[in-house]
Amino acid sequence: MDLLEKSSDHADSAEVFRISSKSIPVTFTSGELESVKSYETRGAALRLIKDGNLGFSTSTDMENLDEIVDRATEASNIGEKVSFEFPTPNNTPEVTTFDPGVEDLTAEKLIELGQGIIEDLHNYDQDLTIDISLNRSIDKIVIRNSNGLHEAEKRSGIAISVEVKQIDSNDIFSLHESVRFQTREDLDVSRLLDQIKKKLKWAQVKTSLENGNYPVIFTSKGLVVLLLPLIVGLDGMNVFQGTSSLQGKLNRKIFAENFSLLDGGVIADSPSKRSFDDEGIPAESNQLIGNGVINNFLHDLRSASLLKAKPTGNGIKGGLIGDSDFRNMPNANPTSMVIDPGDMSFGQIIGDVEKGLLVDQVLGLGQGNVLSGEFSNNVNVAYKIEKGVITGRVKNTMIAGNVYDLLQGPLTLSRERSWVNGGLKTPAIGVDGVSVIQK
Amino acid sequence: MKEKLAKAVSASRGDFTEIRLEKEFRTNITYEKDNLTNLDSSVEFGGIVRTLVESSWGISTFNSVNDLESKVNQAYEIGKASANFKEEPVRLAEADSYQTKVDRKFKKDFRTVSLNEKRGMLKDYNTIILDFDDRIESSKVAYSDSYRELTFVNSEGTYIEQGVPDITLAFVAVARGTDDNIQVYHDSIGESAGFEEVVNREAMAESVASKAVQLLNAKPVDGGSYTVLLNPKLAGVFIHEAFGHLCEADHFYKNAKLQEVMELGKKFGPRNLNVVDDGYIEGKRGNTKFDDEGVPRQKTYLIKNGKLNSFLHSRETAAKMDQGPTGNARAVSYRYEPIVRMTNTYIENGEASLEELISSIEKGIYAKDAYGGQTQLEQFTFSAGYGQLINKGEVGGMVRDVVLTGNIFKTLNNIRTIGDDLEIIGSAGGCGKAGQFPLPVTDGSPHLLIDNLTVGGR
User: Fold this and answer.
1) Confidence (pTM)
2) Per-residue pLDDT tens for B1-18?
3) Which residues of A touch B403 (CB under 8 A)?
4) Which residue from A minimizes the CA distance to B380?
5) What does the alpha-carbon distance between residue A278 and residue A326 come to, in Å, rounded to a whole number?
């Protein structure tokens, strides 16, 4: 008897999530191969609803199914009263989430790829300290429930992250760039290498900026400073509980006219596509913010039922743009997010700044009061802009502001966009009036 | 199992082989406002093989003990493949071999407490927070327990079984005032102990709710450079983030330039500054009687009398730097190989009382409790739960959004006075490094007075 049948005997309805993952993480430290690993895991998560109460348990032991059923049943006896039901079968969109070419990537190929990155960067500057992690992963996911839903999908991914350091006796400069691809065909590290070299060039001169309020341009990568509090605010569960600053603001215009944000598993060029979420809800494309108006929130089954809204395909068993971890309950999380571009080039945006800061990377992300939209971060990769020109790197500098104030605009958005953090496609965005403290 | 593991290790074609098995029994319960958003009781089994082939690591993970033989083989094949690319061979520092079984003492075994009793306790704490004040908008109350049965075997004859209990309780209160003023406060405990640690925590629940409400009236701190008095909890986070990570030898064991920066004997702080990482303090969450390479714990002085004294090592980093292993090779679970990590890290006592410290401050901030921190070698940042302004030795009004930053090489030397009230504190969550999160650790310090710390703000 399989797990779903066995569970259905103990409950009114049941859902089984299974994942088997195979990946090959490769790491380089200080320019040398550090370790190669074959990582395999398989696990199952069981959710039961009995008399309206939810129970949950997970296991890696596929030979002993009684234990997971017993544990989930015990939990459902005293579990949360839920008002949702597991979904019935629905049409999932046609998206390509798997490329056999990724499965064919061997450890040797990944090592060679890493060596190529090191060689290229050492040709630029042989004193760079370079750490790299490369990974190729294949996840096979199956979701079945007692309402007849049966979804299965293979997802492939190649993730590369590079950290370069310039070290001298009284200064360490550390820059981090990462990329993700879903298919072998897309695999191309030239943009990543160009970004690193460009940012190293900008950093050649050290400079400083007096304390004050300045215009700040966030690069695509740096924009996560503003996006993180916003994502927390868009989480349907936070909206329901009143811990989101966006509660009560649905269909209201609270951001600048040129700010639009889309979330979805089916965004064509996303490196993190999926055709259904971790509850089996078909992925879609969900306009969260359109021309400054809050159009929708991120929902899983629970938050949708509590807010009497429609699930949006955002029931994800992981963190922020994270992979599915069967050990977690699903929560309302983003899949892939896209911000509309502007009409200026990145160069024009910089060119218009009389005196300000270009922020690319910060320390202490999410440490402030994110619910209120506050951020306060050490900018460990940031550059001074003077009279429209990048004049050097600043350090020992803090920026602070409030996302909900700043995104009211005016905003300048670049035409150019890039995928960052695995699933965010963002332009560079300029805001005005960020506090900068340098002692 | 012992024979099976011994057989698998001896059958390995690698020059050195180790296997670690883990069986974890865990419970997670979470209330968010009125919803029981997680109620999870699970068991997980898995293992990892690590083998040296021509001085290069091959690593393989698995979930079924039936796969043991094939995974030992797979680790060998991977090690062999990567050996072709390895520039410098891996060497391991000498370590004694042990055959032992270590069980932690704990009073009330949480595995004998029913899920319903745990849920009921949590619901009561949640009610305390939600009912505290009309301005409490929401809450989060999270409980976790975990008992890990670890078995470690290597081809040098070591065989160690360890039982590791871990229990955490975390409270979050969210208060909402007017004009979208939302304030959050949290507190938590984390111990390597039994169920006794999480009962009778009503006062902590009340205090968390009370602080969240008080923060509604706190002013955001003005950015600038301040003399800052850190309470033990925040000072502990500071020493862990800003300095502890820097002492992890895997950051620099292959890097000559960083080794120059981290030269032993170099002055790092005032003469009475002593910083310790200790692998075993009764009941503490960072305890690692044997690390995940089978090396016994040590008490390591990272800074002694203000001077850099020692690093934290795995067998590999120790061999490379011609030093001894320190028992700091830890893995967050069977899915990962051990890397260099902290255990229980703290600043030893100085001589000043809290009253003396406060009265010595002309103008400054008393920064208390911690939201967390992050470091990138010399740069660090950490955030306080809240602060209070100090003026002419008097503690005054509450300020919020206190995020501190600095450069570790300067900041440790800016320590003006060290207090006499060391606390070593475990909290929920844990330390993250190289994707391995959350690793149970504790950190601690007496009150610490530091000059010229930069505080961000608007």
Assistant:
1) 0.95
2) 899 999 999 999 999 999
3) 364, 367-368, 376-377, 398, 400
4) A363
5) 9
